Amino acid sequence: MGLTLDDESRINRTKGLEFWRNPLNGFAVLKVHYSADPEKDTFEWQERTKKKIGTQGWLREYEINWDTVAGQPVYADFRSDVHIANVGPVPGKPIIRAWDFGQEHPACVWFQVLDEDRIIVFDELMGTNILSVPFADQVLKRYPQWKNTWANTMVYDFCDPAGNQRKDNSQYTTIQLLKKEKGILFRSKASGIINGVNFIRFMFYRRHINKHTGVEEPVIRIHPRCSILIAGFKGKYAMGLEEKVLGVKREMPVKDGYYDHLQDAFRYGIINRFDVYSYGMPEEKSTDATYLYNRSKLFKY
Question: Which of 41, 63, 107, 119 could cross-link to 126 by cystine, CB 3.0-4.6 Å?
């Protein structure tokens, strides 16, 4: 039994529902917005749900905004007035060096994870046309005072799993070579790019209450000396469309050859530190940053 014109008119008068017929094939189309559910049509539900996926995810998944985000910043919730601060390493807390390999622009980001999973990013280094061993020398010389002032401070090195791949005419992988030549022990794990991106988006969106002052503060804070990383967060690291199988495209961060290296390094560090893992989980959960966060924190120092 088909819908009458009165049925269609009644549907279109209902909040959150929109009905039309495809003029090419006559198929009936019903668009259902979350506001059709009174329990979800509240400010509290919207704010609670938005915290799970950030601004960009909210617009696509709940506001049914299918406009492409190509050219838009990967991290729309980054704010210079909120996330940039004169932070420095905290003695006694493990230090993470997150690496992205590559001769053209190898990169390293230094950060720590404090209580309540607060993240402070305090330095960056990016090379130009330099091999991995000389670049590692620059990284190791960055903070020589650690050996004396913070003799008991642990330093962990996280990187891209691609560092385990042996390149042409090379006896060692990059990870093997830096272990042999510099004694650096790397940890790496596989995770989808968009899973790591969504997790970092979630952390930019999150706030925590300072237990001493009662003031709401950002979870991620970045020192202004990290100028390339910050420029990426501001929008130089942008979204684009990636060609996939059978011509289907999906939105992914653009590999621009410059800003993406420090961004990749930071993502590798976050993925490893929080053990962001999504393979084998239901597809609808793989982009839910709250779900990823609740599954995280498995890595033990």
Answer: 107
Average pLDDT of span 165-175: 75
DSSP string, the chain: -PPPHHHHHHHHTSTTEEEEE-TTT--EEEEE-GGGSTTTSSHHHHHHHHHHHHHHHHHHHTS------TTSBS-TT--HHHHB----PPTTS-EEEEEE--SSS-EEEEEEE-GGG-EEEEEEEE-SS--HHHHHHHHHTS-TTHHHHTTT--EEEEE-GGGGSBPTT-SSBHHHHHHHHH---EEE----HHHHHHHHHHHHH-EEE-TTT--EEESEEE-TT-HHHHHIIIIISBEEEEE-GGG-EEEEE---SSHHHHHHHHHHHHHHHTT---TTS-GGGTT-HHHHHHH------
Could you tell me if 51 and 290 are in contact, meaning their C-beta atoms sit under 8 angstroms apart? yes
pTM summary value = 0.73
Domain boundaries, the chain: 5-61, 80-295
pLDDT of residue 248 exceeding 70, the answer is: no
Cross-strand partners of 96: 111, 156
